[in-house]
Amino acid sequence: MTSESPENLHLAEFNIAEAKYDLDDPRMADFVNNLDRINAMAERMPGFVWRLKDEPEGATAAAWDGNARLVDNLSVWETARQLETFVFKTAHRQIYARRHEWFPLMESHHFVMWWVEPGHRPSREEAQARLRLLDEQGPGPDAFGWDQLELADAVWREARCA
Fold first, then answer.
1. What is this structure's pTM?
2. How many CB atoms sit inside 10 A of residue 154's CB?
3. Distance between CA atoms of 90 and 71, rounded to whole angstroms?
């Protein structure tokens, strides 16, 4: 796979985490208080196409099983390189570096990417299915992680993101 989209496809990404504490707990304040700022930054980035927004809960809506500590993010980007730039070369990087303060390591995969047709807006259910596919079958053309992309900068490697 390459960092450029095959056949002019866009890149969907989904990540999920279960917070160590309730989202209104003071120990989660730095994470919660930065969500709107980081999401707004993503939306202004070159290559950003779309992200799932739950109204009125915003980006911290429970992702599945009614677990109020479960947060997710689903977005679409023109290319993997543009997503990589946002994740690892903006203020998002500082929040990402602190993730272990707020979120324990998950036993299953917590991040998945896949190619989508321009104009397609994946549902949370589709994203969850891609994550399960990655867990059950490992990386492939329908569900993969950073290490399946050939990015020249490979900034994600420095951040130890798999």
1. 0.85
2. 15
3. 21
